[in-house]
Q: What sequence folds into this?
């Protein structure tokens, strides 16, 4: 599942008429880099949620055939359902087995094929070094166990594998995912790994410009 329902307010005015996942960077739209990486790793069944200007996303990407994948869409109303609510809303499309979720506003060279394995935890998170705009981090790692300890926290990359059972006690509607992950981490039900490769949060025009420069020089 690619999360593409965010309003992209920090990216304004670029997102006034275009949903953030469809912003051009280099030779492709931002979401296309993720789709291509997933397809290369062997993921062929994708779900994309959307809200703000979401019809543009469906019109541009179509059924995914161009990228060698099949795309189902999970539309949301108004400002969207936040991360937790958006995933819960799409569960009927995601099946009964663990599934990969990727934020639609990141750029990374993470090898997604590494996540085509079964995890016994309810969630498996990819953590990265803390960017300058988020120095406090989100979670710590003790071996492969994700904890909420205050020391040596890393940033959640927006890449994770979730088991549908993670959402067993949730209800339809708008809700964030972070509190649920923290609760499960306190119960030792969340695993993770530290990734040191390329990862960028493309949340502002400045970050988009920096990525464009990087891609030009690559």
A:
């Amino acid at each position: 599942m690619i999360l593409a329902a965010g309003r992209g307010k920090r990216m304004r005015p670029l997102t006034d008429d275009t949903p953030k996942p469809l912003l051009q960077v280099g030779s492709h739209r931002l979401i296309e880099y993720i789709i291509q990486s997933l397809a290369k790793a062997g993921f062929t069944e994708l779900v994309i949620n959307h809200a703000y200007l979401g019809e543009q996303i469906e019109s541009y990407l179509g059924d995914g055939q161009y990228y060698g994948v099949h795309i189902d869409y999970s539309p949301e109303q108004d400002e969207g359902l936040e991360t937790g609510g958006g995933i819960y809303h799409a569960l009927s499309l995601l099946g009964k087995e663990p599934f990969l979720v990727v934020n639609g506003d990141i750029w990374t060279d993470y090898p997604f094929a590494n996540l085509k394995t079964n995890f016994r935890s309810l969630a498996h998170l990819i953590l990265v070094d803390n960017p300058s705009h988020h120095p406090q981090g989100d979670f710590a790692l003790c071996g492969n166990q994700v904890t909420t300890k205050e020391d040596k926290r890393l940033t959640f990359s927006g890449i994770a594998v979730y088991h549908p059972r993670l959402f067993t006690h949730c209800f339809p509607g708008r809700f964030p995912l972070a509190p649920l992950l923290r609760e499960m981490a306190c119960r030792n039900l969340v695993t993770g790994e530290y990734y040191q490769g390329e990862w960028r949060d493309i949340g502002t025009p400045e970050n988009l410009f920096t990525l464009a420069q990087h891609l030009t020089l690559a």
In short: The chain is about 25% helix and 25% strand. The chain has a mean pLDDT of 92. The longest helix spans residues 205-217.
